Amino acid sequence: MIYVSGALSMWGDRMWHFAISVFLIELYGRNLLLTAIFGLVVAGSVLLLGALIGDWVDRNPRNKVAHASLLVQNISVTVCSIVLMLVFLYKQWIESIWDGWLTVVCYTVVIVLADVANLASTALTIAIQRDWIVVITGYNRGHLAGMNATMRRIDQVTNILAPLAVGQVMTLASNVIGCGFILGWNLVSLIVEFIFLSRVYRIVPALSVKPPVPEDGQLPPIEAPGLSDDDMSLNLKEITNLPLCFGRFRWLLSTCKDGWRAYYRQDVFLAGMGLAFLYTTVLGFDCITTGYAYTQGISGSLLSLLMGVSAITGLMGTVMFTKLRKAYGLVNTGIISSCLHLCCLLLCVCSVFAPGSPMDLRLLMPFLDANANSTLAEAGGMVEGQRQKHTYPMQGGINQPLLPDRSSIHWTNNTVLFENMPSGMEPDSYISIILLFLGVITARIGLWSFDLTVTQLLQENICESERGVVNGVQSSMNYLMDLLHFIMVISAPQPQHFGILVIISVLFITTGHTMYFLYARKAKRKPAGRLDT
């Protein structure tokens, strides 16, 4: 029942995340502004509210947290789908009201509702995948590893199939039908997930038992020597009644601060930080890497095939995790996975300097003096002919960004697939792009095995009363580091800069794995945790 409810939830999330990006682009005249605003709002809200979400998960009964998160998420998506359907159907009429301000209101409502749905999804993920399954497995390490791996396999499969499904509906029918499809899916999913999670809660009595949250996370008591309990209560009542909004705001800040402190003092702090650093990368199947691949002559059909292969290697990583954990232990599994991940990424570094790479350091060094520029010009002249042979000729000049206008793009699973590619303009050498994708695809084996390792370390080593808030802060860190990689691309948007982004990404990933190595060294000096093997 956990697997079925998890699959339904993940499928709905993947469909919605894919569809909302397409809808926002369609609504704003195929412009990326609304999509960028939405991404910034989502990342910023989780970054700021992650600790508060986790604290709320810790403080409330497990069934109420799951049910409330489920209701808020699905109702938000349902209402948002209805608003989108109305906007698509009556767009011209809406634009004529209030000099177009009603359109701005509709866009704001859509983004806010979508953000609320994402926050509720974050709370549900923390509750089910970071807390419930630990209790359901009876704190058994082997069973916990199996459930974690299975949930990740479900996530990998839905990550490919769900966007394809809703994309076909939107393509063969219309955006309005697509909204209706998502609306219907969420209503059905809400009922099934609600029933299944309620039944699991009744079947597993341990889920109804929850330790109290540490007192340091609550409002600090007011110390007043010499006052009786009645005087203290009266004084506290007067204070809380007078500046109620300020008191609540202070409590929120205190909760966030306590959450980050709790995260920092965990034994697995370095492991969690190491995982977060892996989010600062362009070496994944997102719109950045696939947009770069297009500029190097890779077709959309081939990109789709590569994405399917990457999903298979991701599944291989989950299988490798369970086998390594059983043979060598959890901490050593993380070490092996880290080494495998880094070794595969060396292929990406080699691709930067391989034939066919468009990297040109002169674009990043305008501050060089005349002599240095002259030296670079001479060196550039020696290889200019060869570089022009290997670089994919781009329409629009040398400063064309990694992502051109989206009007010629098909959206598939967070990937942009371009059509109408110029014929006869393919590069003479594909060595660079082959090495890049070979490294990205094979690295996913070690990546997902490492991800599962850190996930289980967080589950095993965080005390039950702080499990929510610490995982909430972990989500905030993941979003923060993910924002950095977009800042990197904004700072160096041309394909000639992509090699620099690859090197920076590998440095961030190496730093993250180094943090894990430091944690592993410290962990091996301590006795094993309380979970059963």
UniProtKB/TrEMBL annotation:
Family per record: Belongs to the ferroportin (FP) (TC 2.A.100) family. SLC40A subfamily.
GO molecular-function terms, A-Z: iron ion transmembrane transporter activity
Signal peptide range: none
Cellular component terms (Gene Ontology): membrane
Taxonomic classification: Eukaryota, Metazoa, Chordata, Craniata, Vertebrata
Annotated keywords: Ion transport, Membrane, Transmembrane, Transmembrane helix, Transport
Pfam families: FPN1
Record has Kinase as a keyword: no
Membrane association type: Multi-pass membrane protein
Primary location class: membrane
UniProt-recorded name of the protein: Solute carrier family 40 member
Summary of the function given for this chain in its UniProt record: May be involved in iron transport and iron homeostasis.
